[in-house]
Design goal:
- By secondary structure, this protein is of the alpha+beta class.
- It is about 40% helix and about 25% strand.
- It folds into five domains: about 120 residues, Beta-Lactamase (2-Layer Sandwich), CATH 3.30.450.20; about 100 residues, Beta-Lactamase; about 100 residues, 2-Layer Sandwich (Beta-Lactamase); about 80 residues, Helix Hairpins, CATH 1.10.287; about 190 residues, 2-Layer Sandwich (Heat Shock Protein 90), CATH 3.30.565.
- The protein contains 19 helices and 23 strands.
- Strands 20-17-19-21-23-22 form a six-stranded mixed sheet.
Length: about 700
C-alpha cells in the first residue's frame, strides 16, 4: 500500500463508493462518522485517505480539506513507513482486522502515541476496496506499557538474532537469561534451560573459576571488565577464545543485583594470529641461521626487520635497529650509498645486484647485495628487502689471482724468451758437434775396436735426438711468439695443405682420409696447417693392426652444458663403429707399399666446400674433430698427452719427442679455443678443438687479434 504523499494531487473529499454512486443512507453514515468521538479514517487500496472525521482533526490538527486525498504516510514518522505498509498489505491480503500501537505526527510536529484498529472495507459487490481504521490516543500508562512491550520485543529480537553471546547473572553468578547463540554454544534447545545454572555446568573448572572470580570482583568494586580476551575450555577438550565485556547490573534504585556481559567469538582471529606468529618464528629462525645479512626496510628507509647476522655484525639488537635508518647506523657517505641502492631497487620490477662497502671492526668489507621491492598492489612498493653476502675474501682471492696470473704471464714470457733464445743459440754448436761426430764415424768406422764404434754410434744418435728436441722446442716457443693477426679463413685450406704435406706418409700407411666440409673461422693459416698436420701425424703414428681410417668434420658448438653430453654420445658411437669394422693388419712378410716413385695417391674425397650451419642463429664457435681407429688412449692419460715432452710409449715402440700435441694445445689456445680428447684403449681416438666462427669473405679484409 502506498504511504508517501502525492505532490501532484490536490486534496479533496471523495465519499463515493467504487460504483461511483451515493449509496442509500450514505448521508446518515457520513454524519455518524463525522460525529463519532473516536478519530475515524477510511483509506482506498492505494493507501490514500478517503474520509476524515472531526475527531481525527481534533487529535492531529489536520483538517479534512488538508488531508483527504493524501497518503497515510503524511501522518507517520519516516521510521514507521515500512512497518505501516506491511500491516496494511497484510490486512488487505488476509482480509482480517489487526490492532497495532504506533506513532502519528501532529500538525505542529509533535508525536502522538496511538492504538489503531484496522479492518478491510468491502463494496456493494463484496470486494475489498479499502481500509477503515479507528485511532485512540494512549494515556501515559498505556504509553509506558506500549514502550515496555516494544522494548521487550526489541530485547527478544536482539537476544534471538545477535551472533555474540549475551547473558545476565545474579549475584551468585547464576544465569538469569542468555542469548540464543550462547544457548547453541551450550548445546541447549531453549535459552531458558540455562536459567539457574552457572559456568561450572558448561565449562571446565579452569575457565569457570576465572569467570566467577571476575564477576565477584565486579560486584565488589563496581568496575567493569572491558574487552578481556578469555580462553574458554570445554568438557569435550575443545578450546575457544572470546573477547568479553562485563558490567554491573543495577536495579532502579542503583543497587547492584548482578552482572551482565557480552562475549564475541574471536577463535578464528586467535588461530590466525597463532599461525602468523608461528610463520614469523619459522621465518626468523631461517633468517637467523644463515650466514647472509638479511634485512627489510620501508619505503622511507626505516628498518622493519633484521636477522641475527646483522645484529652480530653491527652489535645492535632487533629493538635497537627497527625504526632507524642507515643514517642512524653508518657514516653519512656509506648511508647515502646504501639509500641510493635501496631507491633503485624500489623503482625496479626485477631484483638488482650491488657491491656495497660496509665498515666492520677489522676494516671495510665488501658485500654482494641482492635487493628487491615488496609491494601490496601493482606499483605500490612498501618495502625493500636485501640479502647481503660477505665476499671480502673472494675479492681478495680474485685480486691475488689476478696478481698471480700477471706474474705467471711475465714468468711464462721470460721462460718462453729463454727457451727460444736457448734453442736458437744451441743449434749452431750442436750442428757442429753432430757434423764432427758423423765425420768421425765415417772416417774411423771399422778402424777402431767394436766398442769404439758402438760409442761413436751412441754419440751420433744422441746428437740427432738433441737436434730434434731443440727443433721441437724452438717450434713450440714460436707458437707463443706468433704475431700474425687472426683473420677469416676457409678452414678447408690449411687442412688441404696439411694433407698435401703428409701425402707420402698417408700413402705408406695405406690410410683412408674422409673429410667433411669445414667452415670459415678466425685463424692463422700457418698455425692451423701445423695443427692439422700434427693431429693427422698422430693418427698415422699410433695406428692399430687394421686398415687405418681418419675422419675429419665440423659442427656448431652447442651450449656448454650440452657439449659434454653430446661429445660423450658421439665417441660411444664412434667406438662402436671402429669395433664393428676392425680387421687385422697384414702379417710380417706381406707385400710392402711400393717405392716412393710409385706411391698411390691417398684416398681423399674431392676438395670439400665450407660447412654451413643449420638454419637459425649463426654459431659463435665451431667444433672440429679428427677421428682415427688406432690404438686409442687410456682416459687416465688424457691430461698428460698435452704436456710438453710427455710420452706414453718408448722410442722403440713409437718415435717422437712428445711435443706435437703440446704445440696443438698452444695453437688452439692462441686462437681462443680449447682442445680435448675422447678415447678408450683399442677403440681409436677423436680429438676435438674449438675455433671462433667467421663470416665467409672473398678475400680476407682486416684482421682480428686476440
Amino acid at each position: 500500500m502506498k504511504l508517501e504523499p502525492d505532490k501532484h494531487r490536490a486534496p479533496g473529499p471523495t465519499a463515493r463508493s467504487s460504483a461511483g454512486t451515493v449509496e442509500p443512507g450514505a448521508d446518515y453514515y457520513q454524519r455518524l462518522v463525522q460525529q463519532a468521538a473516536e478519530p475515524m479514517v477510511s483509506l482506498n487500496v492505494d493507501g490514500r485517505i478517503q474520509a476524515w472525521n472531526t475527531a481525527a482533526t481534533q487529535l492531529t490538527g489536520w483538517s479534512a480539506h488538508e488531508i483527504v486525498g493524501q497518503p497515510l504516510g503524511r501522518l507517520l514518522p519516516p521510521d514507521q513507513h515500512s512497518s505501516w505498509a506491511a500491516v496494511a498489505d497484510r490486512v488487505l491480503q488476509r482480509q482480517q482486522p489487526e490492532q497495532i500501537q504506533t506513532l502519528w505526527v501532529h500538525k505542529d510536529g509533535s508525536r502522538l502515541a496511538v492504538s489503531v484498529q484496522l479492518w478491510p472495507v468491502r463494496n456493494g459487490q463484496g470486494a475489498v476496496d479499502g481500509l477503515g481504521l479507528i485511532a485512540r490516543q494512549l494515556c501515559a500508562d498505556q504509553q509506558l506499557n506500549a514502550a515496555l512491550l516494544q522494548d521487550r520485543d526489541m530485547m527478544a529480537t536482539l537476544m534471538d538474532t545477535i551472533p555474540d553471546h549475551i547473558y545476565f547473572k545474579d549475584r551468585q553468578s547464576r544465569f538469569l537469561r542468555i542469548s540464543r547463540s550462547l544457548a547453541r554454544a551450550f548445546k541447549l534447545a531453549d535459552p531458558a534451560e540455562a536459567v539457574g545454572k552457572t559456568d561450572f555446568d558448561f565449562f571446565t573448572a579452569e575457565h569457570a573459576q576465572q569467570a566467577f572470580a571476575d564477576e565477584q570482583r565486579i560486584l565488589e568494586t563496581g568496575q567493569p571488565l572491558v574487552n578481556r580476551e578469555e580462553k574458554e575450555t570445554w568438557p569435550d577438550g575443545s578450546v575457544t577464545w572470546v573477547s568479553t565485556t562485563k558490567q554491573c547490573w543495577r536495579d532502579q534504585t542503583g543497587a547492584i543485583i548482578g552482572t551482565f556481559g557480552i562475549s564475541r567469538d574471536v577463535t578464528a582471529r586467535k588461530l590466525a594470529e597463532h599461525q602468523l606468529r608461528q610463520s614469523q618464528q619459522r621465518l626468523q629462525s631461517i633468517l637467523d641461521h644463515t650466514s647472509a645479512v638479511i634485512y627489510m626496510k620501508d619505503a622511507q628507509g626505516r628498518y622493519l626487520l633484521v636477522n641475527r647476522q646483522f645484529q652480530q655484525l653491527f652489535r645492535l639488537t632487533q629493538e635497537q635497529i627497527v625504526g632507524k635508518t642507515d643514517f642512524d647506523v653508518f657514516a653519512p657517505a656509506v648511508a647515502a650509498a646504501l639509500r641510493a641502492n635501496d631507491l633503485a631497487a624500489l623503482a625496479s620490477d626485477t631484483p638488482l645486484q650491488f657491491e656495497e662497502q660496509l665498515p666492520q671492526d677489522d676494516g671495510l668489507h665488501t658485500y654482494l647485495s641482492v635487493k628487491f621491492r615488496l609491494q601490496d598492489t601493482p606499483g605500490g612498493a612498501y618495502a625493500v628487502c636485501g640479502i647481503s653476502t660477505d665476499i671480502t675474501e673472494r675479492k681478495r682471492a680474485e685480486d691475488a689471482l689476478r696478481q698471480t696470473a700477471a706474474e705467471l704471464a711475465r714468468s711464462n714470457a721470460d721462460l718462453e724468451q729463454f727457451a727460444y733464445a736457448a734453442s736458437h743459440d744451441l743449434q749452431e754448436p750442436l750442428r757442429m758437434i753432430a757434423s764432427y761426430l758423423q765425420l768421425l764415424q765415417r772416417r774411423y768406422a771399422g778402424r777402431l775396436d767394436a766398442t769404439a764404434d758402438e760409442f761413436i754410434g751412441f754419440a751420433v744418435e744422441g746428437a740427432k735426438r738433441m737436434q730434434g728436441l731443440i727443433n721441437d722446442l724452438l717450434a713450440y716457443s714460436r707458437v707463443g711468439r706468433a704475431t700474425a693477426p687472426l683473420v677469416p679463413i676457409d678452414c678447408n685450406q690449411p687442412l688441404q695443405a696439411a694433407l698435401a704435406n703428409l701425402r707420402m706418409a698417408i700413402a705408406e700407411a695405406n690410410a683412408t682420409v674422409v673429410v667433411q666440409p669445414l667452415p670459415w673461422v678466425l685463424g692463422d693459416t700457418t698455425q692451423l696447417t701445423q695443427l692439422f698436420q700434427n693431429l693427422i701425424s698422430n693418427c698415422l703414428k699410433f695406428r692399430a693392426q687394421r686398415p687405418l681410417r681418419i675422419d675429419i668434420w665440423a659442427r656448431p658448438a652447442p651450449s656448454p652444458g650440452a657439449l659434454a653430453q653430446d661429445t660423450q654420445a658421439q665417441i660411444q658411437d664412434q667406438a662402436a663403429t671402429v669395433q664393428a669394422t676392425a680387421t687385422q693388419r697384414p702379417p710380417t712378410g706381406a707385400a710392402q707399399p711400393p717405392s716412393d716413385a710409385h706411391l698411390p695417391a691417398p684416398a681423399l674425397e674431392p676438395a670439400p666446400r665450407p660447412a654451413r650451419h643449420p638454419a637459425g642463429p649463426a654459431p659463435a664457435q665451431w667444433i672440429i674433430s679428427v677421428r682415427d681407429n688406432g690404438i686409442g688412449i687410456d682416459p687416465e692419460h688424457f691430461d698428460q698427452i698435452f704436456l710438453i715432452f710427455r710420452r706414453l710409449h718408448t722410442r722403440d715402440q713409437y718415435p717422437g719427442s712428445g711435443v706435437g700435441l703440446s704445440i696443438c694445445k698452444r695453437i688452439v689456445e692462441r686462437h681462443g679455443g680449447r682442445i680435448w680428447v675422447e678415447s678408450q684403449p683399442g677403440q681409436g681416438a677423436v680429438f676435438h678443438f674449438t675455433l671462433r666462427a667467421a663470416e665467409p669473405v672473398r678475400a680476407a679484409e682486416g684482421s682480428v687479434s686476440l
